[in-house]
Amino acid sequence: MSLTSAAEKQVAVAAVRRACVLASSVFNKLVKNETLTKDDKSPVTVADYSAQAVINTVLSRTFPDDPIVGEEDAADLRLESASTLRSRIVELANEALTADLRAGEQPTWGLGPDSAQTVEELLSTIDRGNYAGGRSGRMWALDPIDGTKGFLRGEQYAVCLALIINSRVELGVIGCPNLPVSASDPSGPRGCIFVAVRGQGAHQLPLDDPFSSTPTPISIPTFTQETLNLLESVEKAHAKLSFNEKVASNLGITRPPTRMDSQAKYCSLARGDGGVYLRMPTGVGYKEKIWDHAPGSLLVEEAGGVVSDSRGEPLDFGLGRTLGENFGVIAAGKHVHSKVLDAVKRVKEEEETSQ
Ligand SMILES: Nc1ncnc2c1ncn2[C@@H]1O[C@H](COP(=O)(O)O)[C@@H](OP(=O)(O)O)[C@H]1O
Ligand SMILES: [Mg+2]
């Protein structure tokens, strides 16, 4: 029996959708229409904090006993010097929370016109994301804006939420405001929500109206040597892309890789837009965070794929806020995964012997 009830799925989809609307509106107001200096990261900071405030508000109302492992905390926002940023975040979070109720949403979820929060309420709600994680019990893992660099470039980013029970991801919801509804129509309509419930498959919903449409089941197709390609990070600092090149050549892959920010990579893999997501550590001792992989890994598994580290071990979501020592991530369809794992091992050996 599934450990996740329909209520948790519905709440998570509603919360993620509101956060996606908020993030798109921040992008339109602050990135597109204003002249920003190249390194100004303030829009993503504003979107990150306010999206976490919105999602944590909904989770705190609906599942008050569940702890949350969220990427952000409000310590910096409480500083005297942050007063402008703080007001902007409170304004945006309240705008998102108080928007009219949509089909499938309930006023008891902290949503709708009467749901405005005070500054202190919102700051302590953001801080509900400071749970340390661990092996047993229920917890939510939240990345309010995953792919912050992609967000600033107007490319891919995702709002990512997962429910983990006893170290196992049971529910994953990923909102991708900039992802085309269909990969075969890249200039067509954009905005998707991906939902996976353990044992119940993987589905895609339209971001603008997730509750009124029938979810589209998604699954990983069978790839041939000619159609297979790699999905990888845009940022060289996040994954060892030179290693990916060697793995591709080892496997005889001829198609160029698809570079994309955020867990939109897991979503693309789950619906067959790319055959393998490979993320090998760059060697700087960075530990992967659970919120960067929890919903995406369940989505891929429910779409018929396998997700492991480069030793072939499953990712361990029970170690705290991180996945522990970084052995990278390999995600692919069942039939391709073992071939990629072997190729990764071969390339690792080659690199070790040539040192
Ligand atoms: N040195 C590093 N190695 C691997 N991942 C890193 C990293 N530094 C940051 N990240 C993570 O990479 C995520 C983005 O992944 P991707 O490269 O697939 O788009 C970031 O999420 P945020 O954008 O939420 O901070 C961040 O958590
Ligand atoms: Mg992230």
From TrEMBL:
Residues passing through the membrane, by range: none
Keywords, comma-separated and alphabetical: Hydrolase, Magnesium, Metal-binding
Cofactor needs: Mg(2+)
CDD domains: PAP_phosphatase
InterPro entries recorded: DPNP, Inositol_monoP_metal-BS, Inositol_monoP_superfamily, Inositol_monophosphatase-like
Alphabetical list of PROSITE patterns matching this protein: IMP_1
E.C. number: 3.1.3.7
Catalysis: reaction(s): adenosine 2',5'-bisphosphate + H2O = AMP + phosphate; adenosine 3',5'-bisphosphate + H2O = AMP + phosphate; 3'-phosphoadenylyl sulfate + H2O = adenosine 5'-phosphosulfate + phosphate
GO molecular function, one term: 3'(2'),5'-bisphosphate nucleotidase activity
Chain positions recorded as Mg(2+) binding sites: E71, D143, I145, D146, D292
SUPFAM superfamilies referenced in this protein's UniProt entry, alphabetically: Carbohydrate phosphatase
Pfam families on file: Inositol_P
GO terms classed as biological process: sulfate assimilation
PANTHER family: 3'(2'),5'-BISPHOSPHATE NUCLEOTIDASE, PHOSPHATASE
Family recorded in the similarity comment: Belongs to the inositol monophosphatase superfamily.
Protein name listed in UniProt: 3'(2'),5'-bisphosphate nucleotidase
